[in-house]
Amino acid sequence: METMAMFVGVIALICILGFFNEKVTKLTYEIALMLFSSILGILVLAGTALFSGTTIGNVLKDVQGFDIHDFLMHGVLCFMLFAGSCHMKLKDFKQQARQVTVLALVCTLLGAAFYGLLIYGAGMLFGLNLTLPVCLMFGSIIAPTDPIAATGILSKFGLPKKTSFLIQGESLFNDGIGVALFVCFSGMVSASSSSQQEGFVGVMLREILGALVVGVVVTVLCFLMFRFCKHAYLKIFISLLTVSLSYVLCEMLHFSGAIASVICGILFSELRSRFSEFEEEKHAEIFDSFWETLDVFLNSVLYVLLGLSFVSIMRMEYVLLLSATAILANLIARSASLSLSTLVIGKIPDNFSRFGFVTLLTWGGLRGGLSVALAMSTKDMLPEKTYFIILGCTYAVVFFTTVVQGLTMKPVYNRISRKRAA
């Protein structure tokens, strides 16, 4: 009953906040949900204190403490990644394979290292007891850009095709790199994980290559049913089976379920285009409409939950100072890693200057639920004070990149475009 009540409450918030935004504020949909949910989260925090010990207070406390890690990593992440990638074309990826690989691999590695070193230096300056492995683990949490934010927010700003594909491609593939880094550094922090002995290269190869094999094999086998199936809704059920089975197998085998989900989406899209003569036009429309609707719905739920739980930042000491430090360190680390990555990326797409390209991708490097979920997973391996610093700073970066950078992305892009035209 509590789960159903929570579900009803979240759906009600999505509808009410969405309707208010449509009629009054007219902000980008996902940004509005997170912004207004954050404001509501502050009111929930006040209500929890006001009604402490009562039934209302207990309900508000449950809302505030929702486990985003379990919801995302053990629930809906695979479907969100599949929905975001099932419309990407393999031929587009082939054309920009070098750029996507450099951004997903090199930029994420450098970003994690730069961010970790900056936070380590800030910790020494502020007298915080943060070890270098903890700071590098924090860097691996912040470094990957969020595919959900990239596809949900940035796709609405009319970016050039190649640049838009590059941003989405980077955000879809750098999750696996970030998770591999997180596994390595968290193993160093706990000093008991086998990943410490295995090393980053071993973890990365296992996570990525294993996910690639599982994603391809499962997709090809399931697509055989999909191709010869005549029922439109059964085709959708087969696609759901494809991505969920791939994700579960990867989690059981300690591969990257996120990478496998992206592989499933891209390969499914490619196979559908190659065998389009076997798919009726009406069935194709139903399939696309389902995944688009599911994507928007799950995005909406995630942004509302992120906003409601944003008050977790209040548990961090020196909240304003550390939040500002985390945000500034993220911008510096992202900009520096992109600047170095552009030296080996090859041709800059869409005739952007190198400076304009770095500026655009720095400001477009949004963070989201994956970073928060990884931060929450460190609770059992860190002292309480350190855990709340990691969680609070992660929320600060996610909120700033989603709301502030998301709201100002279009004018930043327009300014860069005018300089490019000049």
| Class from secondary-structure proportions | mainly alpha
Share of residues in helices = over 70%
Poorly predicted regions: 192-197
Instruction: Name the average pLDDT.
Output: 83
Coarse morphology: globular
H-E order = HHHHHHHHHHHHHHHHH
Separation, N- and C-terminal Cα atoms: 61 Å
Beta-strand percent range:
under 5%
Q: How much is the radius of gyration in Å? A: 21 Å
How many helices? The count is 17
Major sheet: none
Question: How many E-type strands?
Answer: 0
Characteristic key phrases:
single chain, 422 residues
Could you provide a short overview of the structure?
The chain has 422 residues and is mainly alpha-helical.
How would you describe what is shown here?
- The chain is mainly α and 422 residues long.
- Helices cover 80% and strands 0% of the residues.
- It contains 17 helices and no strands.
- The chain is globular and about 65 Å long.
- The model is unreliable at 192-197 (pLDDT under 50).
